[in-house]
Amino acid sequence: MQSEATATTEQLDDPEMGSTWFYSIVGIIIFVVFCLAVSVLFFGVEDGFVEDQVIDKAPALSTTLRSEQQGLLGQYGTYAEEVDDKKVERVRIPIDRAIELMSSQTK
User: Using CA atoms, how far apart are residues 38 and 44, in angstroms rounded to an integer?
Assistant: First the structure.
């Protein structure tokens, strides 16, 4: 019984300083390399993802629709519109003429 009591009361030696420094430096180096590898992988995947999402060609539907609308803005015409459940005929004028009319009204 005395041997058990003396074994637990004995002071343990501190670890050697050389091995502690070695393991600390190796651990730091491994951590830094791991962080750099994760960063390289992340930014590589992100660049590839952005390149996959960017579309170089304009959609054909919006291009044709825009050209049709540009043509309508540059010419006179009429169109029907429903207001309060009644069809109302409206006149379409070129945008330049509308700007001239609005600027002459404000003066």
Answer: 10
